[in-house]
Design brief:
Helix content is 53%, strand content 4%. It is built from 13 helices and 3 strands. A 3-stranded antiparallel β-sheet has the order 1-2-3, with no helix packed on it. A hairpin with a 5-residue loop joins strand 2 and strand 3. Helix 1 runs antiparallel to helix 2 and helix 6 packs antiparallel against helix 8. The termini are far apart.
Length: 295
């Protein structure tokens, strides 16, 4: 049933290959545990006790609560599928709650640090692809998987716009600056894809589609030159993008659309570290707020 479930995610839910790989890994981890403890490969027969024991083992192996919750979410989705197709009558995850944890606070790269990267390090950087990776991630808030999967036909340099396929195969359009369009035009002059990968916009030096590990290494390398902050990943560039545009007065509903969030609550995370800036904007903009008063 695992293969049928993954086909369901691919063809009916239209999940991205990256998301399907994550689901497969989570379910295979549980399958190995089930085989070890129950001497069976048929995880459709699992009960609540086995699920709880799986969570305990993950915790004892120092797997983070965030990762455990993701695996539990994958199991919930799998058993809901089995309910849907009539393979089971009750989900073994039905009354099992996710683990509570306090999310680690993400500290964005500062605007000054990003300016130093753009005006100092990148300006003389001969590797146009690496420069594009940094600038596209920071100027669009795109996820690294979305960057790697960006289709050639979805890049509109004349209209200064990118079409991005995000989580759940949802489409969104992201405006880009004229300067970024010009940088991407420069990249096109050196882009040499193999025939198999020509539909992807970003291509590595071997002519193949970019992989996420390469993107991470590039981002980490350049951010290490301008900051001592611990987090130096593609995601922190997404976080920094959201923080900086909100700092500069962008409407949170519009930032939500650009980031591809399904709920406003996801976008509001980026306002938590910037409450003083938001107070200032409010006091300047609200018709009943006195400019001499602070919230």
């Amino acid at each position: 049933m695992l293969d049928k479930y993954l086909e369901y995610l691919q063809f009916e839910k239209r999940y991205s290959p990256h998301t399907i790989t994550s689901y497969r890994k989570d379910l295979e981890d549980f399958s190995h545990f089930y085989l070890k403890t129950e001497a069976s490969e048929d995880i459709s027969k699992a009960d609540k006790k086995v699920i709880r024991n799986f969570i305990v083992e993950l915790s004892e192996n120092n797997i983070s609560k965030r990762s455990i919750n993701r695996k539990l979410s994958s199991l919930r989705s799998f058993y809901l599928f089995l309910l849907k197709v009539g393979e089971i009558k009750v989900s073994p995850t039905e009354s099992i709650s996710s683990l509570k944890f306090y999310a680690e606070k993400q500290i964005p790269i500062s605007q000054e640090e990003m300016q130093a990267l753009s005006d100092g390090v990148l300006i003389d950087q001969p590797d146009i692809l690496e420069k594009c990776i940094i600038e596209v991630l920071y100027q669009t808030g795109m996820r690294k998987a979305e960057l790697c999967g960006l289709m050639f036909e979805h890049v509109n340099l004349e209209g200064n716009e990118l079409k991005v396929i995000g989580k759940g195969n949802k489409e969104r359009f992201i405006p880009i600056s004229a300067d970024l369009s010009n940088l991407l035009r420069s990249y096109l002059e050196i882009r040499k894809p193999d025939t198999e990968y020509k539909t992807y916009f970003f291509i590595n030096k071997k002519g193949k589609k970019l992989n996420e590990k390469f993107v991470y290494v590039v981002v980490n390398k350049y951010l290490s030159l301008v900051t001592t902050k611990e987090k130096r990943s593609p995601h922190i560039l997404r976080h920094s993008f959201a923080t900086h545009v909100l700092d500069n007065g962008a409407e949170i509903s519009k930032v939500k659309k650009i980031l591809g969030h399904s709920s406003l609550a996801s976008t509001q995370v980026y306002t938590n570290a910037n409450i003083e800036q938001l107070k200032k904007v409010f006091n300047q903009a609200h018709p009943r707020a006195s400019k001499k008063e602070e919230l």
